[in-house]
Amino acid sequence: MNILGVVVEYNPFHHGHAFHLEASKEKTKADLTVAVMSGSFLQRGEPAVLSSYERAAVAARMGVDLVFELPYAFAVQSADRFAEGAVKLLKAAGATAVCFGSEQGSIDPFLYQADLEKTHQAQLHTLLHKNLGAGMSFPSAYAKAAASLSPDHSLDVKQPNNILGLHYVKAAQRLQLEAATIQRRAAGYHDVEPTDARIASATSIRHMLTSKRIGEAQAYMPDDSAASVTEQLQQTGVLPIWETYYSLLQYRILTASPEDLAATAECREGIEHRLKAAVFEPDFASFIKHVKTKRYTRTSLQRLCTHILTNTSKTEIKDTFENEPPLHLLAATERGRKHLRTLRQRDIHPTVKGSSQWKTDPLSASAYDVHQLAFPTHSRSSAFKQFARMV
Fold this sequence. Notes:
This protein is of the alpha/beta class. The chain has three domains: 3-103 and 164-174 and 177-240 and 326-390, 3-Layer(aba) Sandwich (Rossmann fold); 110-158, no CATH class; 242-309. 54% of the residues lie in helices and 9% in strands. It has 21 helices and seven strands. 44% of the residues are buried. Its EC number is 6.3.4.-. This is tRNA(Met) cytidine acetate ligase.
């Protein structure tokens, strides 16, 4: 049985995601599709516009048979740890192949680069630390080190989906899963405005939504996804973005000592003092601009801010990494539920009820509750009692 595994965020689900999903199924000849999806906060340190359960329900209606949550400790992380946790979960869920979208579009350069870095691991490590010592950000330092190993290599690791894809391939090789990739179409990852009549990046769709261009944004999403966004806006008037949480972040920074901030996950090199100095900036965008340095990318700062907001320490992240990530079910189709029975026969028991996640993955459960603070009080009581969606 061919079981396709995909790693997704669907923030929100759009036509480009639908293309990737169908093309991945075709490429891997999938009989069943399993997704691992970021929960309340995402890899780039941003809040999800819809709850994890709602995004998973959309995914199931669009053709994903099982959707599991990528635990917070792996989801709000650098590419290597994000990929490692996601692929581990796909393997545990029975996936036989992982297929990802990339700017590259061909799997061969990924396989070549993965083999090159494995063969020259010590050299890559030396080059990386030399570049970091010169004051470069980690992504830039890594890209330069990788290029130095093979000046004529064809994989551009400066591209965000290529770098994620490379780590998916490395993890898949370690776990003996097939790896495949689909060429991203029409929209660039960071595009703020759409350049195509049908496909736009999630970044540009979120920009349209927060700019009150709802109808324009809906044109780039399947009906199910557009309806979920519209319903949330009608019921709550809220589409979570960082500005929504900025006052809560300010409170956390103001009431924490520099030592407490330094103990937060991803806080390093004295950045806690810059956080304190910038805390009275009028909005989140200004705050990030004030804190940013050459060594700290905007993405890494957003992840740090997420960990501050959720009060997540370095110790808690480390302890989580030492255990196998749990399978927390968010949504399932009828075909997916049949596959769940085979997982139970392998002594893997996916967590279903939202409240029971506190026992198996307290960081994710806590992050979900923090995420809900963006919404009016009247909408939270039902949101705090979530079950996996059966589609």
